[in-house]
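ok so I'm stuck.
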Amino acid sequence: MEYSYSFKIVHSTNHLPSDWDALATSNIFLSKAYLTVLELSKPTNMNCFFIAMYKKDKLIGIALAQFLDLNKLESFGERDKCIKTVVRNFIFKNFCSHVLFVGNNMLTGQNAFSFSTEIEISTGIALLHQAELEIKLSLKKQGKKVHLTSYKDFDKKELEVFPEKEFDSFYQFSTQPNMVFTVSKDWHSFDDYIAALSKKYRDQYKRCRKKATGIEKRKLNFEEIVALEQTIYNLYHHVAQNAPFNTFFLTKNHFAVMKSELKENFLFYGYFENNKLIGFNTLIKNGNQMDTYFLGYDEKVQREKMLYLNMLYDMIAYSINKGFKEVIFARTALEIKSSVGAKPEEMVGYIKHSNSLINSKMDTLFCYLEPVTEWQERNPFKD
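replied:
not stuck anymore, here's the structure
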């Protein structure tokens, strides 16, 4: 690599280069405001590293890396009680508990880096790989040996520009797809979306809305989020604990910090029954796409009122009515997201174990690290 390229690893957003945001314009998740959220309310088992890349003295790339210590987790997820889960948890605890992600483990999609036009992407990724090695060295000096290194959530085309020399020892993996809802050019309002549904799925929509009678939806401001912080956390934590697998849990103040830093780009919707908060969902405006974020609900109410499906329709309605082009629904609950019109997009990445013997068996090990989800794709639209 040319000697004129260099990088700097920054540990606080206060020390980011003044022109950092100039390279984050196309992705809010690399902006200083969002990285400040991470700094102030990141999961307790996570450390963040902000990477500034230079050509001579000019900033030409920005990136994010996260170190997770899975030994600090209360649980990996409590839904699946089977022998495979027991084996997976044993493997994680003993061989994979220290993980370095180049990217953002809390999100789905390419939120790892952004480069200016003054550097080839493959050269930028090679420079990022050097930064990754330096982060691992600094963690080792603190007595934290990284077991797994992962570059996560790229589409196949993006992976083609990764330099072969740096990544030939990595295992290329495919994860659960990212569920993406594309707004048709023919839809100018939510009513147009409903009209495009086939009879079966229009009936599903009507039934779902009928079930939600008595539920009031309200957009909450910063003060209201703070006032309801404990209830919000309990609802989130219930959903998170019942996920098949977790690598982190949010902190109690996370949503308040999100609102404080991202302001009108972060939307928090509370669902109330008899003035009691029984569920919530969150959205993040990211250019012309809407990213769904974390949610929570009371399981009993969710079943009775089809609350989760109602939330999906509400997110779609807001996004269409406000002119967004896509809704990023991320992973989990693939089939129900498919039933409202989201399509799966394959996500790939690279992963490597520090132990060369274990690394040579990564294809077998990965089956335990990333449990396969069986699901059936739906098409809710008229042919």
